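hiii, so i know i said id send this last week but things got crazy w the move. better late than never?? heres the sequnce for the chain we talked about at the cafe, plus the structure i predicted for it. fair warning i was half asleep when i ran it
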Amino acid sequence: MRDNENYWKRLRRRPVSRRSFLVGSGVTAAGAAAILAGCGDDDDDDDTAAPAATAAAAATQAAAATEAAAATEAAAAATEAAAATEAAAAVEDDSHKRGGTLRLWKTTEDAGMDPGIFHVNNTDVIYPTMTQVYTYQPSKNVFSRDGVIGWEQVDATTLVWSIRPGMKFHNGDPVDSDSMAFSFGRLDDLYEAHGATHTTNTGWLYVDNFEPSDELTMTEHWKVPSADAQVYRARHYYSFVNPRIVDEHGESVGTRPLPDGSEKEVFAIQDLPHGSGSGPYTLARRDTTGTRVERWPDYHQHDPADDGFVKDGPYIDAWETRIIPEAASRKAAFLAGDLDVYADVDPLELADFEGQDHLQVLEFPAGGFALCGMDGGKFHDKRSRQALQKAFDYEGFIQALRPFGGTYQGPVSRLLPQYALSQEEIKSYYYHDPQQARQLWEAADFEYPMDHITVFMGAGNPLQLQIGEFIAQSIGESLGIETDIEAVDITTWAARALERAQVKDWELLAYGVGTSGGTTGLPNDSALINFDPRGYGNSAFNHSLYEDLMPRKEIIEDGTALIKMLEAQEQEVDVEARAVLLREIQHWILDRHWCNWSLPPSTVSFYGFSSRLQDFEPNEWLNLYDRRRESMWLKEDA
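okay and structure toks below
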C-alpha cells in the first residue's frame, strides 16, 4: 500500500490549466422535470404537433387577410415567392458530408455481441449493425424515430408500436411485428437462463406479454403501469433481432423454467451471424485487433428524418475500432490524430492537450458514478456496511483525486435534480468517522470471519486503480484491517462480478471513475439499478432474494421492503408524487448503507474529440445513446 501523505499529494503536484485549451463547452442534460415530461404520457412523440400549430396560426392569419385589398394579396404573393426562394436556397447539398471512416478504440475484445446479454466492449458493433426503436436525447427531451414511425399509450397498461414499413434484415428477411415481439420477449429468457445479464431487467418486469397485432403493429400488455417504459425502449437491448438467425445459428445458453413445470431452452447469437441485424452497417471484421463495420447500401430510409437521422442513411462510410489496452497508447494515438473519440480526459493530464488544433476537449458538468459495491453474502449485517460507510475518507478522496472539486452523490444522479437528494442530505450519511466505524465493525455479526478485504476492479484506467488504492487504504487505516486490490481485464471483471455464488471471491467491487457520464433520463439507470435486489443488487452484490444464494434473513427482509418501494415509484407517473417516493427510497438506502456506496464524483468532466468529427451531439456521448447518431460526419480539412 502506498504512503498516503506522499502518494496522494504527488498526484496533484502538476499544475493544471482548465481554460487555456478548451475549444468548446457542452451542457448538462436538462432537469428531470423536462427530461421525464414525456416518459409516461400518452403522446406518441411524432413531429405533427409543431406543424399543426403552425398551420393553425397560418389559417388564422389567412382569415384576417381576406379583408385586405388586392394590394395586400400582391404583397402576400411576393412574400410567398420570397419564402419559396429562400427555402430552395436552404436545401443543403450534403454530398461533402458523405464518406470517411470513424476511428474509435476499446480496451479488449468483446465477450459476445448478443444485444440481450452484454454491453461491454461490443457496442462498436451492436449500435451500428442493429436497428433500435428510436433514440432518446435526455439533454433535449427528444425521441428520434428509427425502427418505428409512431407509438401510442392506449391506456395505463397498453403500449402500441407502429413499425417502419420496408425494413429488412441484412439477409433480406422482413422486419415485422413478429421479429419485434421476439426481440423484446427474449430478454427475459436470456436473463433467467444466465441467472443474470447486463440488461436492466426492470425494463420489462412489468410486462405481461409482447403481442404481434398485425404485420407492422406490436402491442405491449403490462401487468401494472410503468413511468419509464418509453425511455427504456431507447436502450440498445431492444435492438431488432432476426428470429430465423437465432433459430438457425443460435447457441444454447441454458434453460429457464416455465409456469407449467417444463423448461425452455434459450439461444443466443454472440457472433451476430450475417442477417442478425437490420442497421445501417454490416460487420466486415472482428478479430484480436478490433472491429470494422461498413455502410450497408440497402439500409431503409428515414423519411422524414428525425434529429440525428438522415433520409438516405448515415454519412460516414465505415467505423474502425482498434483494441488499445494501454491508456498511454490511447492517449498517444489521440494526440497523433489517429482517433476521433478519446473519451474522458483525466483532469490531471489536461495540460497535455493544449495547443492541439486537430482535437477538441469539451467541458461538461460531471454526471458519472464512482461506486463501491459490497458482497451481501459477507456484509449481511447492516452494521458492517455502515462501518464501511464511515471508514471512507470522502473529503480526503476529493482532495486527492478531484483537482477541480468533487461533489457528493446519492443513489440518484444529480443530473436528475427533480429526484436527487441535496448535498446536505447526502453528507448526513457520508462522513468519515473512524471511531464510529470501528465500533460498528466490532458490533457487527459476520457469518464469514472478516480479517482481510480485497477491492476488486477492472484494469485499463489508471484513475480506476488510484481509486481502488484509495478505498483500500482508507478502509484499512480506519478499521485496522489488512486490505489489498485486485485489477483484471474488463471481461474477466464483468464475469466475476456477476458470478452467482453465496459469497463472492472479493469483498468490495470498485467500478466507475466519476469523471464523466450523463444520464439516460431514467432514475434506474442513474443509478438505482445498482442498489436494486431485482437488478445488480441481486446479480453483482448478493443483496438477493434468490433461494440458491441462501441469503440471510435480514437481507431477505430489507430486500423485500426495498422492492415494494421501487415498484411503487416505477408505477407512479406523476413527477412530483414520484419525487417524494424516490427521496424516501434514497434515505432508506443510505441509512442501511445498502449494497453500494457512491464515492464523490468530479464536479466537471472533460471529453476529447477530433476536430474533424461534426454533428456528433456531445451531450449524448456521456450517456448510452452516443454512436447511434447517423447524422455525424467527418470534415475533410480538419
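btw Residues 70-90 form the longest helix (21 residues). thought thatd interest u
miss u guys!!
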